[in-house]
């Protein structure tokens, strides 16, 4: 089993970005929302480059006891400005000062990479804003390779 190594002071930089905001999504509905996003990119024939990036943050438990999450989906696209009526757009996105870990293995085990990052923050007495960026490099039913960035609050 490969060792998960945490690196500090990494920066996530994206250019020509299309962004889809997903607010208060039930955990079991996220996959459908992700599929809908990918279908809309295909229908619009968006020429994307680079991997899908998923920003996770903002968990909420409603009065009914149901937990929801807020996400942002990022893709980089050629001619990104022509999609400003469909998606949020941003010419450049930067997330500096991150702790970083690469995970490769079974998608069900990716939680260990997140736990290792959480433990690293605890041991190093770092603070986070609660956001996590997952850069999905490869994905299939039984294998995933992802770079995970967790911003460090600079004091």
Radius of gyration: 16 Å
**Poorly predicted sequence stretches spanning 5 or more consecutive residues:** none
CATH topology: Multidrug-efflux Transporter 1 Regulator Bmrr, Chain A
Strand order of the largest sheet: 1-3-2-5-6-4
Succession of helices and strands:
EHEEEHEE
**Between the first and last Cα atoms, what is the distance in angstroms?**
36 Å
Number of strand segments: 6
Shape: globular
The assigned structural class equals alpha+beta
A few lines on this structure:
This protein is an alpha+beta fold and 155 residues long. It is 18% helix and 51% strand.
How would you portray this structure in words?
This protein is an alpha+beta fold. It has one domain (7-151): Alpha-Beta Barrel (Multidrug-efflux Transporter 1 Regulator Bmrr, Chain A). It has two helices and six strands; from the N terminus they run E-H-E-E-E-H-E-E. The chain has helices at 30-43, 110-123, and strands spanning 7-26, 48-61, 67-77, 88-105, 132-139, 144-151. The protein has a six-stranded antiparallel barrel. Strand 2 and strand 3 form a beta hairpin. The longest helix is centred in the N-terminal third of the chain and has 14 residues, at 30-43.
Keywords:
155 residues; alpha+beta; Multidrug-efflux Transporter 1 Regulator Bmrr, Chain A; 6-stranded antiparallel β-barrel; 18% helix; 51% strand; globular
């Amino acid at each position: 089993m490969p060792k998960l190594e945490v690196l500090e002071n990494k920066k996530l930089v994206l250019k020509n970005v299309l962004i889809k905001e997903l607010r208060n999504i039930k955990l079991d509905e996220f996959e459908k929302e992700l599929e809908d996003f990918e279908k809309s990119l295909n229908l619009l024939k968006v020429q994307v480059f680079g991997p899908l990036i998923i920003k996770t943050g903002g968990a909420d438990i409603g009065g009914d006891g149901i937990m929801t999450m807020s996400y942002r989906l990022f893709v980089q696209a050629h001619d990104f400005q022509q999609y400003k009526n469909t998606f949020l757009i941003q010419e450049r996105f930067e997330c500096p000062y991150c702790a970083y870990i690469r995970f490769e293995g079974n998608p069900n085990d990716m939680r260990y990479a997140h736990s290792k990052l959480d433990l690293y923050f605890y041991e190093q007495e770092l603070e986070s804003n609660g956001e996590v960026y997952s850069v999905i490099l490869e994905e299939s039913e039984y294998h995933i390779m992802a770079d995970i960035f967790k911003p460090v609050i600079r004091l």
